[in-house]
Specification:
The complex is a heterodimer of chains A (about 575) and B (about 350). Chain A is mostly helical. In chain A, about 75% of the residues lie in helices and about 0% in strands. Chain A is built from 28 helices and two strands. The longest helix of chain A has about 35 residues. The N terminus and C terminus of chain A are likely disordered. Chain B is an alpha/beta fold and about 350 residues long. The chains are: A mainly alpha (about 575), B alpha/beta (about 350).
Chain lengths: ~575, ~350
């Protein structure tokens, strides 16, 4: 890494009492951000209530089994979809390839719970497709086989359709950076394109595949909306059932801590595969020659890409649009605008806060590239892999505790009550978002900073500028692209976020996601379509942004960006 | 370099200021307010709250959410909780709230007179505001009403693979099983559950409307549903939903013995309430004839108040005898019900 090797002189400049405060600020930030996750983990040390015996006897096996099957299914689904999409667009030439290059990213804009609503509407037993089949062939129930959408298999399909872009993005970069020489050697030795794919290209792209799949799996594990709607018992639905049905919050928190164990394994796996990636780096940058597909082969490639985009984006988006137009007349426009405004305000505040904290952490790491600082940055990224509900509980407990302690102290000494200063306000909600999404902006800013030569810092510092002035006058203007990306990505993530918002929001505060969920859970899918469509359309923003930047990978996902960076180390 | 200390401090204080201003964002500038935590969705309660504000000048602040999420929030917020009223859509959560010590007893002659004793807490910790019945929806072309009798009879072999019902995650299924536990005891209930599960036509999935649609489409012949979903489908649903509901009729089980299982939506004043008078006024308002009628007509629920008649649609389904078991009992037995359903492998 460039900074590591060249910052010695900078460090000399930075050693002083002044930069100590940056470091303190950074470590403090990381410590605060880590609290909610640590609180959940700490529940493991508390007493185990008798309800655990019941869970072990009856449902825990299902939770573990279904979660594992879900991971297995989503893992293979995203692998197949992502790798084939990446191979076609990176290594082949066929009509429409340029369009598919970015169109294959569209499903990213579709939250999993929303795609689940639309497919259920279409494919359910009483939905239009099955009804048409029945009336056309005069079938009744049981006369024919039709796959059941509300099942584990259905959940796997839904999640795979929206999560494969993680794999696609990373593997596409890996493919296009593979040495042409190796691939051509393989072909000149008489291996066809298929053998080249399976024997050479895929093994070389293994680290990228592992990283992409583990990202998709983290998201799949954190999913609640889809599995709940389909009636699949997984860890996340189990947490809710233990909490709501049995009224055992502590046991639910303990379940959540066990879920974190799964997540942790994925985390390690991803880190490990990233490290491996460095060894696969090839210094010779040559554009690989694409395999020209002609005739039926080109047709198949086109159809395959089209099917993926249609199933993952076009079809559900059209369904949403048709539902929304059905109900447009009866929509309360001003109510909807309030919803849009509050969602936007919230997302804007959260993304700004994330950005500021990310700058503190990333810049702190640049000023003090030590192991402690690196760990601090890593710890503050943990929240990304934790389900929203778990974070919400982790935020609720310390905020209320702190507020009540402050209140008790004030009552005791000054006989005044301060009440709840932070709990139940937007501050608590924004904090939860920061915990969950800081990693997204941190990694974007981080890799942006890494591209700025430290010699620039040194020149500025030697001219007598302080670190903050350097950041303000030199780095920030140069970071404009990364800053915009970081803001936008968190903005869209917050907009899609559901469970945290539901639990932590203040009085009289609704968002698009909350409204869509409330209506859908009241079984009014058509009414839920308009807010859902709004979320999807806004989710398209980062995708379009991405299509304009040359380095597609970098803009769309910060982890991808990080990978990219590692790649060039 | 003192400069750095200052700037870092400045940065921190800017962040603090942002958070502080976020904290102050909550509007509270009204003379009289009441703060409501509601498990009932906004669309199904807001119109009545607006009416209350209009009549009394008391401003209402609202948060909606899952009953247990709100309850957890109340508990962690403790004595400083801003909530004055907790509104839930089932008796179980009200029972849990009382047990957790987050509610307080309220003396209201009006409520004690208007709400029947079995639909409120005997000490005044909470009051039922509307009643929903768990009924059998049946395909009117394939099943005759005479074939139906009780919940118990749904476990009989004649209904093998003919029954649709949603997941046991659903609170109304949980409280139905709790009522079975309270009247039949543990063993009989577990036996009944075994028979019931053998009669499921498909794995539990979807919501109550989906069960009605499945009956209409012929996937099953019977379904257990809450009465108001049927009403809403008939009168407010899409054309397909209306067509489906018309193929289905409702049956009120157990009319010859304990009566049809009901649950309530209800409200209580929180222990931390800073506006007790306003909170009580709101609950009383929701029990008044206008509000009770509104519940019945727009939500297709049965009024909790003794003096109010059901809406004309509800009346067209006929009078029914409701189970008069104390709804507190359902709350107490809820965890046992969930465990029994877990053991029976009801998803």
């Amino acid at each position: 890494m460039e900074i590591n090797t060249t910052t010695t002189s900078t460090q000399v400049l930075h050693r002083g009492r002044g930069s100590f405060s940056w470091r303190a600020l950074m470590l403090l930030t990381a410590a605060i951000i880590a609290i909610p996750v640590l609180i959940i983990v700490a529940s493991l040390l508390q007493n185990y209530s008798p309800v655990w015996e019941h869970l072990l006897d009856t449902v825990l096996r299902d939770y573990v089994l279904n979660s594992l099957l879900l991971m297995l299914g989503v893992g293979s689904g995203t692998l197949v979809l992502g790798v084939s999409a990446a191979w076609l667009t990176a290594m082949c030439e066929f009509p429409g390839r340029r369009v598919f290059n970015w169109a294959l990213l569209l499903p990213m804009a579709m939250p999993a719970y929303i795609i689940a609503y639309t497919y259920t509407g279409m494919l359910d037993f009483s939905g239009p497709i099955q009804s048409a089949l029945r009336s056309h062939f005069d079938w009744g129930f049981g006369d024919y086989y039709f796959p059941e959408i509300r099942s584990l298999g259905g959940a796997i399909c839904m999640l795979s359709l929206v999560l494969y872009p993680y794999v696609y993005l990373l593997v596409r970069v890996a493919f296009s950076e593979q040495s042409t020489a190796v691939l051509e050697a393989s072909r000149s030795l008489g291996k066809g394109p298929w053998k080249t794919l399976f024997l050479v290209a895929l093994p070389m792209a293994r680290p990228a595949i592992a990283a992409g799949v583990s990202l998709a799996l983290m998201e799949a594990l954190a999913d609640f909306g889809t599995v709940d709607y389909f009636g699949v018992s997984t860890f996340t639905t189990g947490i809710f059932r233990t909490w709501y049905g049995l009224g055992e919050l502590r046991a639910a928190a303990q379940l959540a801590a066990f879920l974190l164990l799964f997540v942790f394994i994925l985390f390690v796996l991803e880190q490990y595969s990233r490290r491996r990636m460095r060894f696969h780096h090839n210094s010779v940058q040559q554009k690989p020659t694409r395999i020209m597909l002609k005739g039926w082969r080109a047709g198949c490639a086109f159809l395959l890409a089209l099917t993926i985009v249609t199933a993952g984006f076009l079809l559900p988006a059209l369904q949403l649009a048709s539902w929304a137009s059905e109900r447009l007349a009866s929509t309360d426009v001003s109510g909807f605008m309030t919803l849009v405004t509050s969602s936007f305000t919230l997302a804007a505040i959260a993304s700004t806060c994330c950005l500021v904290l990310a700058l503190i952490l990333a810049y702190g790491k640049r000023l003090h590239p030590g192991p402690l600082e690196r760990q601090a940055a890593r710890v503050s990224s943990m929240g990304y892999a934790v389900p929203g509900t778990v974070i919400a509980v982790g935020v609720l407990i310390p905020f209320a505790w702190m507020d009540n302690r402050v209140d008790a102290l004030m009552r005791e000494h000054f006989n005044i009550s301060t009440g709840l200063v932070l709990s139940g306000t937007l501050a608590a909600l924004v904090f939860a978002y920061v915990v969950r999404f800081l990693s997204v902006s941190l990694q974007t800013v981080d890799s942006g900073l890494a591209r700025i030569r430290p010699s620039i810092d040194e020149s500025a510092r030697s001219l007598g500028k302080g670190p903050l002035q350097v950041l303000q006058h030199i780095h920030l203007p140069m970071l404009r692209g990364s800053v915009a990306t970081a803001l936008l990505l968190v903005f869209v993530d917050v907009l899609k976020e559901l469970p945290t918002t539901l639990i932590l929001r203040p009085f009289n505060f609704n968002t698009l996601a909350v409204r869509a969920y409330e209506l859908a859970s009241d079984e009014r899918l058509a009414d839920a379509a308009l807010p859902a469509l709004a979320i999807v359309l806004i989710g398209l923003l980062p995708v379009t942004l991405m299509t304009r930047t040359s380095s597609a990978t970098a803009a769309i996902h910060p982890r991808a960006k990080q990978l990219n960076k590692d790649h060039h180390e | 370099m003192r400069f750095n200390y200052q700037t870092a401090g400045r940065l921190a204080s800017v962040l603090l200021a942002v958070f502080a201003s976020l904290a102050l964002f909550t509007p509270s500038s009204y003379a009289k307010t009441v703060n409501v935590y509601s498990a009932r969705q906004e669309a199904l309660i807001k119109p009545m709250l607006d009416k209350f504000s209009e009549e009394t000048g008391i401003h209402v602040n609202l948060i909606t959410g899952g009953g247990d999420a709100l309850l957890t929030r109340l508990r962690t917020e403790g004595r400083n909780s801003p909530a004055d009223v907790l509104l839930t859509v089932d008796a179980g959560r009200l029972y849990r709230a009382k047990e957790a010590g987050v509610l307080q007893a309220v003396q209201s002659e009006y409520l004690e007179q208007a709400i029947p004793a079995h639909l409120r807490d005997s000490e005044g910790y909470w009051f039922g505001l509307s009643v929903r019945a768990r009924v059998i929806a049946y395909a009117s072309d394939r099943v005759k009403a005479e074939q139906l009798s009780t919940y118990e009879a749904l476990a009989e072999p004649q209904w093998r693979k003919r029954l649709c019902v949603r997941s046991s995650n659903n609170i109304y299924n949980q409280s139905m099983v709790a009522s079975m536990l309270s009247t039949q005891g543990k063993e009989a209930t577990e036996h009944w559950l075994k028979g019931l599960l053998a009669n499921f036509a498909r794995p539990p999935q979807g919501g109550d409307r989906d069960q009605i649609k499945a009956v209409a489409a012929g996937q099953c012949d019977l379904a257990l549903v809450n009465s108001y979903y049927y009403g809403a489908m008939l009168e407010l649903g899409s054309p397909e939903e209306q067509a489906a509901a018309q193929k289905v009729a409702l049956f009120f089980p157990n009319q010859d013995d304990r009566g049809t299982h009901i649950n309530i939506s209800g409200a209580g004043v929180t222990k931390a309430a800073k506006h007790v008078a306003e909170a009580t006024a709101l609950i009383e308002f929701l029990a008044r004839p206008e509000a009770q009628q509104w519940y019945a007509e727009t939500n297709y629920e049965y009024p909790a108040s003794k003096d109010i008649e059901a809406s004309s649609l509800l009346k067209s389904w006929g009078d029914f005898k409701a189970d008069s078991v104390d709804v507190t009992e359902l709350g107490r037995l809820n965890p046992q019900a969930v465990m029994a359903m877990d053991r029976a492998k009801w998803k």
